[in-house]
Amino acid sequence: MVEELKNLDLIDLLGERHLMIRKRLAEMWDTQGESHVTISNSEWFIMAKIFTQENPTIAQVAKQTDISRQAVHKAVKSLEAKELVKTTNSTNRVKGLELTQTGKESYDKILSLKSELEEHIKQIVGVKNVELLKKILGTDWGI
């Protein structure tokens, strides 16, 4: 697979690495996660937004994730069925979102798996290279 990456431009290379990382995290979740719940990448992304905010609405999550409100609503319904997310009554009939206890535990586990994967990457490419990559990716690219 690495040989195939050598001929890619920056945009495609970033995309391929992103897919590889997400696939590896999914594999780690499936083999190491205490739960037998399958959680899609979109659902993890939505859970991350809920985790980092206090009772965000579906509209707020949709705007922050650049996922349509309908798609966020569908994902939230799926997460509710898995008992990972619940809705709360907010003001003006707008429902807020929060992680359930199981959702918080699942999110904590995925954070641990991400940390484990980052440590593995550091062992392969070196700590300084990972820190440089994080600095570059965190820089404002003006786009």
What is the strand and helix layout of this fold?
Layout: H1 2-5, H2 10-32, H3 41-51, H4 58-65, H5 69-81, E1 85-89, E2 95-99, H6 101-125, H7 127-138
Antiparallel strand pairs: 1-2
Helix pairs in contact: 2-6, 3-4, 4-5, 6-7
> Which architecture does the CATH hierarchy give at level 2?
Orthogonal Bundle
> How many β strands by DSSP?
2
Helix and strand pattern: HHHHHEEHH
* Inertia-based shape: globular
Q: What is the gyration radius calculated from CA atoms? A: 17 Å
How would you classify the helix and strand content by structural class? mainly alpha
Number of helices: 7
**How many strands, what sense, and barrel or not for the largest sheet?**
2 strands, antiparallel
Determine the fraction of residues in helical runs and give it as a percent range.
55-70%
Description:
The chain is mainly α and 143 residues long. It has one domain (2-138): Orthogonal Bundle (Arc Repressor Mutant, subunit A). The chain has helices at 2-5, 10-32, 41-51, 58-65, 69-81, 101-125, 127-138, and strands at 85-89, 95-99. Strands 1-2 form a two-stranded antiparallel ribbon. The longest helix has 25 residues, at 101-125. The radius of gyration is 17 Å and the shape is globular.
